[in-house]
Design brief:
The complex is a heterodimer of chains A (about 625) and B (about 210). Chain A is of the alpha/beta class and about 625 residues long. Chain A contains 21 helices and 16 strands. In chain A, strands 8, 9, 10, 11, 12, 13, 14, 15 and 16 form a 9-stranded mixed beta sheet that branches. In chain A, helix 1 packs across helix 10, helix 5 runs parallel beside helix 6 and helix 8 runs parallel beside helix 9. Helix content of chain B is about 30%, strand content about 25%. Classes of the chains: A alpha/beta (about 625), B alpha+beta (about 210).
């Protein structure tokens, strides 16, 4: 091996082959690797050695009797398998047994394990396992060409060996159900899957409300997108969810499943993505790995069933991004000449020719499609991202919809708070320039590790036309707490009410907690007279809370948070707003200003409970 | 149904019933006197309206369950088909049915139980592709369509049919245990059965 990136694959993986009449066949390995070699971006030195996974590895994810069945049905020349037993283990249809499948599956898992181990141990910065990412396999069932769940096995092994937090990003057109299920209650493994909605497409799961189970609630994230979403819609969803999620989760290792079956030419999905989209996604993942995971990134090939035009090019683009090797300007003609006819129909460059699109020429239903996807993305963000993170990573505004801030003006104020930790200065309407001159206490870290980055985050909120930042800082200029007030996110239940604002975030540095700073900040924040004309709301979703640091249960944390808000004139309210109602420890509070007219107050109250009709 | 459900006696207080529901995380309680079923209470029977004063809630909490329960509730036998139970829930607009055998109350069936049945019937819990069809409502049509699927070696996990959108048609929803469903949809279309599914999204399903 040379350099900091490697490919975990070799000729042995061609054995993972359901036969020439199946979409998942041996040809994918050769089709892909031969192009990498022809393009001179892959040497023998770049190949990572790996061994077949052992029972002990596979049993981290799979049941022994399933593995035994796999071995039994795999034996060459075995009598026809018992069809009932084969069906029970999913070894029919898509996953029809083939001789040697047990060993082939162990090799796939071994390749992914080697890639993850090498990156986790720091031997490599990045690794690519092209014939891998068998994300559907279940504990005791083969599903959708996936005999073993190599990704889940590798992540389980690695999180057992090292205290790492793993972010798994699944871009395959199909929901990453098997990996999600394997870590559904694990707070150290955050799985996020962007896929075509399961309304028709296999496997049918991956709805927005599949959020995980305690203690891993909120660590399973799903973005189901409409058929014909296309590159722009897919990338917009990625930007709105994955980057902020990484910022919130603070992973140590990024594992991705880069299935390219979302391509327009792929027979298995209708997402209509292009190679250009895959290249953009690879670039974003690369940046994300360096920004949030100290560069540690393992990519797996996943699905992709157009072996002539799409899969080799998609692998080449991904490997080029990951390894930093530049592709030649055109696909080598010598390689094209060796491929079957359809490959020659593909673009002669690496990407499809750019299509000229005129404004308004989108197909019928394009607007409805976009609206559906936006609704999905907004719901995912509300559920999966803590409010402070949403504030810092706002949704791109729609053209022409520049929201006017609802917050009226007043003179900036400064106050004083004598806390147990020492005197603090409280300030509101904090301008971005001042925030950039202050330091941020390292104990403020709800979602970014780096205090300098945190300061930039606060400055960006202050620069929002609708944002208001109230800070508490030491006389020496160290910020130890802040409150952010802003317009509610569009499309949510209370957003359309006039004169209503949201306390989007409240945070106090770990070393300054339990010193009354939060209460003092919040009381100070709502003192200005204009708040008497406004309704302020705040919601707390329990899985966003820093329970580890506080040592409190969700219910106890809710009580503490409720008291902080009540001290500032907020009232805890019951609502059936679905995100609040999702968990009993979730909190919803509101402060109705003293001059809010009764009609507006009533309009607000009537939205609290929609499933119930108030009795006369 | 839930067998051997938690019950309350008619002279238990509303507050006690509320706390039993909270503990068990359910919304219906059979009211039993000795071994005899005398009524049911639902969560909504035990709550004051959202805007009511606190005193009203306290007063309600002290009252006996017998005063707020539905007496002589609609019940089912344990061996009744699920569609009979569903029809009773719909016709009587109730949220639960106590299940009563010769020896008395043996269980309770709620809306949630029926949703679990619905999920199983529609195959939503297993990895599969969803395909919908509209067939002429004549003998043999469904059989011919399913033969097309069977000949591709694809396992059908669930098949549900219902009256179709037009008179003389039947709607069919099936779940095929394959990731590669476009050929199934194509084969159905080629055989003259208009199908919607992967590879061929229908109107409104972009």
């Amino acid at each position: 091996m040379s350099g900091t990136s490697a490919v975990a694959a070799d000729g042995r993986l061609a054995a993972y082959d359901f036969g020439p009449d199946r979409p998942f066949q041996a040809g994918r390995l050769d089709a892909g690797l031969s192009l990498l070699r022809a393009a001179k971006v892959l040497d023998e030195d770049d190949l990572l050695a790996f061994h077949p996974a052992a029972d002990a590895d596979l049993e981290l994810i799979h049941d022994r009797d399933y593995l035994e069945a796999l071995a039994r049905f795999s034996a060459a020349g075995a009598a026809p398998a018992d069809p009932v037993e084969a069906t029970r283990f999913g070894l029919v249809g898509d996953n029809r047994p083939f001789p040697g499948m047990d060993q082939a599956a162990r090799l796939v898992a071994g390749a992914t394990m080697a890639a993850v181990d090498a990156v986790a141990a720091g031997d490599l910065a990045h690794a690519f396992a092209p014939v891998a990412g068998l994300h559907h396999a279940q504990r005791r069932r083969a599903v959708g060409f996936c005999l073993v769940n190599d990704v889940a096995v590798a992540i389980a092994r690695c999180t057992r060996a090292w205290p790492l937090r793993v972010l798994y990003v699944d871009l395959d057109a199909h929901h990453g159900d098997g990996v999600q299920a394997a870590f559904y209650d694990d707070p150290r493994v955050c799985t996020v899957s962007l896929h075509e909605t399961g309304r028709y497409l296999f496997p049918g799961s991956g709805e927005v409300h599949e959020l995980g189970r305690p203690p891993g609630t909120g660590r399973s994230v799903n973005v189901p997108l409409e058929p014909r979403t296309g590159d722009d819609g897919f990338l917009a969803a990625f930007d709105a969810v994955v980057e902020p999620l990484a910022a919130a989760f603070r992973p140590d290792l990024l594992v991705t499943q880069n299935g390219c079956d979302g391509h327009a030419d792929d027979p298995l999905s209708d997402l209509t993505l292009s190679l250009r989209g895959f290249r953009e996604l690879a670039r974003r993942l690369h940046k994300l790995a360096h920004r949030h995971c100290q560069g540690r990134w393992v990519a797996t090939g996943g699905g992709g069933y157009d072996l002539d035009r799409v899969v080799p090019r998609a692998w080449a683009l991904l490997w080029s991004e990951l390894s930093g090797r530049r592709l030649p300007s055109r696909v080598p003609s010598a390689w094209l000449a060796t491929r079957p006819a359809p490959a020659q129909d593909g673009p002669s460059g690496w990407l499809e020719p750019r299509q000229r699109r005129r404004r308004g020429s989108a197909g019928p239903g394009a607007r409805e499609l976009e609206e559906r996807n936006q609704r999905t993305v907004r719901a995912v963000r509300r559920l999966a991202l803590p409010p402070s993170v949403r504030v810092v990573y706002p949704l791109a505004r729609r053209a022409g919809g520049a929201a006017a801030g609802r917050l009226p003006g007043w003179e900036p104020r400064a106050g004083e708070h004598r806390s147990a930790g020492g005197p603090l200065v409280l300030r509101d309407r904090t301008p971005a320039s001042l925030l950039r001159r202050l330091e941020v206490d390292p104990g403020i870290h709800a979602f970014v590790r780096d205090p300098d980055q945190e300061r930039e985050v606060l400055a960006r909120i202050a620069e929002e036309p609708t944002g208001e930042v109230v800070v508490a800082h030491t006389p020496e200029g160290m910020v130890v707490g802040y409150v952010a007030v802003l317009d509610p996110e569009p499309g949510t239940r209370f957003a359309s009410l006039p004169g209503l604002l949201e306390v989007g975030a409240i945070e106090v540095a770990t070393g300054w907690r339990r010193a009354g700073v939060a209460s003092a900040l919040l009381r100070f924040a709502v003192e200005p007279d204009p708040f008497e004309d406004l309704i302020l709301i705040a919601s707390g979703l329990s899985w966003h809370w820093d329970l580890d640091q506080s040592g409190l249960s969700a219910v106890a944390y809710r009580r503490v948070l409720g008291r902080v808000f009540e001290a500032a004139g907020f009232e805890t309210l019951r609502t059936d707003e679905p995100e609040i109602a999702y968990h009993p420890a979730n909190l919803f509070v509101a402060r109705v200003g003293s001059r809010v007219p009764p009609a507006r107050r009533a309009a607000f109250t009537s939205r609290l409970l929609r499933g119930h009709h108030a009795m006369p | 149904m839930t067998a051997r459900p938690v019950t309350v006696s008619p002279d238990a207080t509303v507050a006690a019933a509320v706390s039993a529901m909270r503990r068990g995380r359910f919304r219906h309680l059979p009211v039993v006197s000795g071994s005899e079923l005398v009524g049911v209470v639902a969560q909504r029977d035990l709550e004051t309206s959202p805007g009511a004063p606190v005193e009203a809630a306290e007063a309600l909490g002290d009252r006996p369950v017998a005063e707020v329960m539905t007496s002589q509730p609609v019940t089912v036998w344990p061996d009744e088909p699920v569609e009979v139970a569903a029809r009773l829930l719909v016709e009587h607009a109730v949220g639960c049915l106590p299940v009563v055998a010769e020896e008395g109350l043996v269980g309770i069936l709620t809306e949630s139980d029926l949703f679990s049945v619905l999920l199983r019937l529609l195959g939503g819990g297993e990895p599969s592709s969803r395909i919908t069809l509209v067939l002429p409502d004549v003998p043999g049509a469904l059989g011919r369509a399913m033969t097309v699927v069977g000949e591709l070696g694809v396992n059908l996990l669930t098949v549900v049919t219902e009256p179709g959108p037009e008179p003389g048609t039947r709607g069919v929803v099936l779940r095929a245990g394959t990731i590669n469903a476009a050929p199934v949809v194509a084969a159905l279309v080629a055989a003259g059965f208009p199908a919607t599914g992967p590879g061929r999204p229908g109107p409104g399903d972009r």
